[in-house]
């Protein structure tokens, strides 16, 4: 039977899958860059189901809000290796800058905690009762992200030899391996499939916008290098398993 606090019930789940992290590495919106810098995420998610009262294992009195919204909380770990891809690192380019770009490597890691409000166009009590096999959903929310990047070069130490190892755009304080905390906005769309009375599978597509350009540890001057004007972003596709407490 369901257990929980009065007036609502709880669900827990595991979720994970590939992540495409868009940063100052490579060309923006270049497919080779997106494909080459794929990482992964894995996490734990928690739902407050407002339609179901766990004390009596029965539905709460109907309101549009409790029958179409759930509150989603999550703790997510994400990481991705980063390299430069695109025309500027093609073999035909033999300049010092091209060699420096090819020799640059990075790694981005984040630990994130946040909440979302998840909307279901299909009544939740119909899905929970088994009248629907699957339901779509969409959500919006925010996360606090602790990030810790690492950038290095095959040509030498980037901190003591920046002119030898880094293109000009990454010199003079435009690269920093220090950690930090940044907020992000997240938007999800997905689908849930009921597999038993007390468990669901989910497929979840997420777009995440960080309110900073330092998540990858680099921030070329956006007024000079207009190709690097955007903050860091990520897109992830995850598969999850949800069970009802």
Task: Give structural attributes.
245 residues, mainly beta, Porin, eight-stranded antiparallel β-barrel, two-stranded antiparallel sheet, 11 strands, 49% strand, elongated, Glutamate dehydrogenase
How would you characterize the overall build of this protein?
- It comes from Neptunitalea lumnitzerae.
- This is Glutamate dehydrogenase.
- The protein is mostly beta strands.
- The chain has one domain: Porin, CATH 2.40.160.
- The chain contains 5 helices and 11 strands.
- The protein has helices spanning 31-36, 64-68, 96-103, 124-128, 162-165; strands at 9-22, 38-49, 52-53, 58-59, 69-83, 104-119, 134-147, 150-153, 180-196, 199-210, 233-244.
- A hairpin with a 4-residue loop joins strand 3 (52-53) and strand 4 (58-59).
- It is elongated, with a radius of gyration of 22 Å.
- The termini are close together.
- Mean pLDDT is 90; it is low at 1-6.
């Amino acid at each position: 039977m369901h257990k929980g606090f009065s007036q609502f019930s709880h669900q827990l789940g595991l979720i994970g899958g590939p992540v495409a992290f868009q940063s100052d590495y490579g060309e923006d919106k270049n497919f080779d860059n997106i494909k080459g810098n794929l990482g992964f995420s894995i996490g734990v998610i928690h739902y407050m189901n407002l339609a179901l009262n766990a004390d009596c294992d029965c539905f709460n009195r109907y309101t549009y809000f409790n029958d179409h919204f759930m509150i989603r909380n999550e703790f997510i770990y994400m990481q991705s290796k980063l390299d430069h891809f695109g025309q500027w690192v093609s073999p035909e380019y033999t300049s010092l800058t091209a060699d420096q770009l090819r020799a640059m490597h990075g790694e981005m890691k984040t630990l994130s905690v946040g909440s979302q409000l998840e909307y279901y166009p299909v009544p939740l009590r119909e899905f929970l009762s088994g009248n629907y096999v699957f339901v779509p959903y969409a959500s919006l929310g925010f996360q606090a992200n602790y990030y810790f990047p690492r950038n290095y070069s095959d040509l030498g130490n980037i901190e003591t030899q920046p002119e030898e190892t880094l293109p000009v755009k990454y010199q003079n304080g435009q690269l920093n391996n220090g950690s930090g905390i940044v907020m992000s906005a997240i938007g999800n769309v997905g689908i849930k499939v009921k597999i038993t009375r007390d468990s669901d599978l989910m497929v979840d597509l997420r777009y995440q916008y960080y309110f900073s350009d330092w998540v990858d540890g680099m921030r070329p001057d956006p007024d000079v290098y207009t190709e690097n004007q955007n903050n860091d972003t990520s897109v992830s596709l995850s598969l999850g398993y949800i069970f009802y407490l």
